[in-house]
Amino acid sequence: MSQSYLSRRTVLQGLGVSMALPWLEAMGPATSWAAAGSSTKNPAPNRMAFFYVPNGVNMADWTPSQDGPLSEQLPHILEPLRPFKQDLLVLTGLTADKARSHGDGAGDHARALAAFLTGAQPRKTDGTDIRAGISVDQVAAARLASETRLPSLELGCEAGAMAGNCDSGYSCVYSSTMSWRSATQPLPKEVNPKLVFERLFSAGPDPKLAERIARRKSVLDFVLEDSRGLKKQLGVSDQRKLDEYFAAVRDIEQRIDRAEKMPPIPAPAGAVTPTQIPAQYEEHVRMMYDLIVLAFQADVTRVVTYVLANEGSNRPYPFIGVREGHHDLSHHGNDPKKKEKIRDINTFHTKQFAYFLGKLKSIPEGDGTLLDHVMLVYGSGNSDGNRHNHDDLPILFAGHGCGMVKPGRHIRYPNETPLNNLWISMLDRMNIQVATLGDSTGALPGLGG
């Protein structure tokens, strides 16, 4: 007997909006999500995302003491991630060689971020003749562009200039941009959650979209009629999934609306305060994480980059008792008190990442959860911020990559192993084969066990 399935490209339409749907049982066998031509029976499409934290970390509080299976007690910075121990790989020994000087002098912060996903030496200039290399996310985005509505998302929590001198003669674009479409085409990140939300759920250029925004109505109000018709075709389990998805969308809308209405924190004299961005950094970070979850859940995109703060950021963290600037503290000179504060900042960031992993793991998809169907890399292009070294980087891999990765371990690679070897291996697990990328020398062994 033949059976008619709901297309997984089904969207709900409304006045100027288009809402993609999460995977539903009515869309047919879970294996239909697998990449075209793939022989693996993936329960859902594989996704990749890259999360960057600046100024390195306090490595003594990051690196597990033993190789192999992760122990019950994780290092201090990784301790918030303990509930997800079996979903993590701690990768030690990877190097971003092109973040080093190679005769260009100072500028380690600019080079660290520019080389992180490209493996290319950025040209030292503060003019318009910028040059780095194509980043791994954009290699994937170019190959997957026909599969999703958005090829990729570039997000951040700290605005950055795209010109000017920000680090010892390096253009500001290098310090604030992780994603590069080509060697000369950096992709600026979006830091406003409201604009990200509209990008995810707008139906494209449409004058009616402005009308919807002006009336301050939820996207759900405009797809309500379409959703009623869809629900009649769904079973009880799918109806519950759809309700949960709608609830998540509504929650983010309400949080964006509250953030806009909250009184801003007074800025120093002469400073320009951004609008429509949460005043509290933690709320800003989490709201962006929630938007990534929605983007993956609805298969709007399969490629994301997220810069939590620009490289060299001197943001203070008074809400965790750290009033000094992050960059200033990173030059700790082995002062125990400064290193402790760096550790606190690093731990704050991993707590937010743990929040994100929890969201992914709570959402069923196919024969597992969203966390089973992603490859996430969290880390920095600097190791010890005091030494500005770019070897033995703090790199954390999360997710199961549709069963192609075996987490729950600490893997120690020979020092000077190119970070880009990891990117080559991830692309391969997205059914994207490239011979080289940046300074890669081959695939990274051991990820699959």
How does the SSE layout of this entry go?
Blueprint: E1 11-14, E2 17-20, E3 47-52, E4 68-69, E5 88-95, H1 108-116, H2 136-144, E6 153-156, E7 165-167, E8 170-171, H3 172-176, E9 180-182, E10 185-186, H4 193-201, H5 207-215, H6 219-222, H7 224-231, H8 236-261, H9 281-297, E11 303-307, H10 326-330, H11 336-361, E12 364-365, E13 368-369, E14 374-379, E15 395-398, E16 409-418, H12 420-429
Parallel strand pairs: 3-11, 3-14, 5-16, 6-11
Antiparallel strand pairs: 1-2, 4-16, 5-15, 7-8, 9-10, 12-13, 14-15
What this model shows, in words?
- By secondary structure, this protein is of the alpha/beta class.
- It has two domains: 318 residues, Alkaline Phosphatase, subunit A (3-Layer(aba) Sandwich); 68 residues, no CATH class.
- 31% of the residues lie in helices and 15% in strands.
- The chain contains twelve helices and 16 strands.
- An eight-stranded mixed β-sheet has the order 4-16-5-15-14-3-11-6, sandwiched between helices. Strands 1-2 form a two-stranded antiparallel ribbon.
- Strand 7 and strand 8 form a beta hairpin.
- The radius of gyration is 22 Å and the shape is globular.
- About 5% of the residues have low confidence.
